[in-house]
Design goal:
Blueprint: E1 5-13, H1 17-32, E2 36-37, E3 44-51, H2 56-75, E4 80-85, H3 86-91, H4 95-98, E5 104-106, H5 114-122, E6 128-129, E7 150-154, E8 156-157, H6 168-172, E9 176-177, H7 180-192, E10 197-201, H8 217-227, E11 232-236, H9 245-253, E12 260-262, H10 270-275, H11 282-295, E13 300-307, H12 314-327, E14 331-336, H13 344-348, H14 355-379, E15 384-392, E16 399-403, E17 409-413, E18 422-430, E19 434-439
Parallel strand pairs: 1-2, 1-3, 3-4, 4-5, 5-6, 7-10, 10-11, 12-13, 13-14, 17-19
Antiparallel strand pairs: 8-9, 15-16, 15-18, 16-17, 18-19
Helix pairs in contact: 7-8, 8-9, 12-14
Bound molecules: S-adenosyl-L-homocysteine, iron/sulfur cluster and FE3-S4 cluster.
């Protein structure tokens, strides 16, 4: 049996980039308190799950995962298991009934209390720290990230949008922007450490508003790109109702901002996006896409789709398929709707699309989008793309894996290049998920 250092910790991160960024903050906070990262879960004295509540299957996954801790805790005396992130914030003390293996709970705004939660757990309590704190942006904490090529930099926390299906406003609380000066300070440190890619993140970056001097997201993005001229700059997520022409022009004007916009539409039916409380019509969405494409020719576009939302009829589903065929997104993240208790939809709308129909519609959406992505990938055979090498390819050390500015995965012959290099790659083959090639 492996020995577990009682002052070592291991974090499992689930969910979105925000949780990944939070895990880097948690690592910093625990290190400050004298704990050290463990090599693996098997050798850790403290295991922390940083969880996601956005869809029912994400929650099921954690519940299944927690089961294996029950046996483990009997064998590993003194092991502390904490659950952090969006699920405990949402389900609160109810979490303890899911698994007796859980020692403590922490929500996204309370990570500064983690050292004390760990100590209290060791003296036999089941402590929780689940208050919202809309002033918390973890200013002054220097995140300890995984990897030294790409970094996520949060520019805001929380969300005020109240999309009817979405649990995020309930798990992350009110929207708050980080001070411009704090974001720039972090970017300067990343530049000094040689990071090659910086992704500014927030649930709705377009509503960024500097609390000190009122600067907007376009100004922030512009200055970040000038401060880190050698790095690729990305950002996510944009909300279609808030994305501005000024922002799109900034992306077009600055050579190191990736020409990629993730613009979740959710459905192709104006009736359904209205019920979702998204704040735009599909005509307006199409106009935004036309504006973006006219200012940034060749821009890569991606989106999120939810199939089978409350009240969705066959004609609404057909409208989603039509929108996908018309716009031809490079990539889409596609889900079937699952009710999240407490949300506007759960309280006011009937979840009336049968599960089999939701899954059938989702499959049609996935099949269509895969064929579009595959066609777009095929079209890039013979072209030269700029790839930021991220790692060795899973299959061979003689190949590197990286991404294009449009976020397409590329595997290419190594030929002396290292992770972190920007490489011009001639594309020779494509599947629906990956391009392959060799340096030009
Ligand atoms: N703030 C981002 C991300 C939200 S969560 C945004 O506004 O785009 C990421 C995606 O999960 C959403 O865009 C949506 O497509 C999906 N999603 C959220 N809640 C869901 C639910 N209850 N059922 C299915 N998919 C959901
Ligand atoms: Fe959820 Fe909507 Fe906020 Fe995105 S913008 S996190 S979908 S409420
Ligand atoms: Fe999930 Fe929380 Fe992110 S619910 S998507 S981890 S904000």
């Amino acid at each position: 049996m492996t020995t577990r250092g009682s002052n070592t910790f291991y974090i499992h991160t689930f969910g979105c980039q925000m949780n990944q960024a939070d895990s880097a903050i948690i690592t910093a906070l625990l290190q400050q308190a004298g704990y050290t990262p463990a090599e693996s879960e098997e050798s850790a004295g403290i295991i922390l799950l940083n969880t996601c509540a956005v869809r029912e299957n994400a929650v099921d996954r954690i519940e299944n995962y927690l089961q294996h801790f029950q046996g483990l805790k009997k064998r590993a005396k003194g092991l502390v298991v904490g659950v952090a992130g969006c699920i405990p914030q949402y389900q609160r003390e109810e979490m303890f009934s899911i698994s007796p293996a859980i020692d403590f709970l922490a929500g996204p705004d309370t990570y500064r209390t983690l050292p004390s939660l760990i100590e209290q757990s060791r003296t036999g309590g089941k402590p929780t720290s689940l208050e919202f704190n809309s002033a918390e942006t973890y200013e002054g904490i220097d995140p300890v990230r995984q990897g030294d090529i790409s970094a996520f930099v949060p520019v805001m926390r929380g969300c005020n949008n109240m999309c009817a299906y979405c649990v995020v406003p309930f798990t992350r609380g009110r929207e708050r922007s980080h001070p411009f000066s704090a974001v720039m300070g972090e970017v300067e440190k990343l530049v000094a450490s040689g990071y090659r890619e910086i992704t500014l993140i927030g649930q709705n970056v377009n509503s960024y508003h500097d609390p000190e001097q009122g600067m907007n997201f376009a100004s922030l993005l512009d200055l970040v790109s000038r401060t880190a001229p050698e790095a690729r700059i990305r950002f996510t997520t944009s909300h279609p109702k808030d994305i501005s022409e000024a922002l799109v022009r900034t992306i077009a004007d600055r050579p190191n901002i990736c020409h990629h916009i993730h613009l979740p539409v959710q459905s192709g039916s104006t009736k359904i996006v209205g019920r979702m409380n998204r704040g735009y019509t599909i005509e307006e969405y199409r106009e935004k896409i036309a504006m973006i494409r006219s200012i940034i020719p060749g821009v890569a576009l991606s989106t999120d789709i939810i199939a089978g939302f409350c009240g969705e009829q066959e004609e609404d589903h057909q409208a989603t398929l039509k929108l996908l065929s018309d716009i031809r997104f490079d990539l889409a993240y596609m889900f079937f709707y699952s009710t999240r208790p407490g949300t506007l939809a759960a309280r006011t709308l009937e979840d009336d699309v049968p599960e089999a129909v939701k899954k059938q519609r989702l499959q049609e959406i996935i099949d269509l989008q895969n064929s579009i992505s595959a066609e777009l990938f095929q079209q890039s055979i013979g072209s030269v793309v700029e790839v930021l090498a991220e790692s060795e390819s899973k299959r061979s050390t003689g190949q590197l894996m990286g991404r294009t500015a449009g976020n397409r995965a590329v595997v290419f012959d190594r030929e002396g290049y290292q992770p972190g290099d920007l490489v011009k790659v001639l594309i020779s083959a494509a599947t629906s998920a990956t391009l392959t090639g060799r340096p030009e």
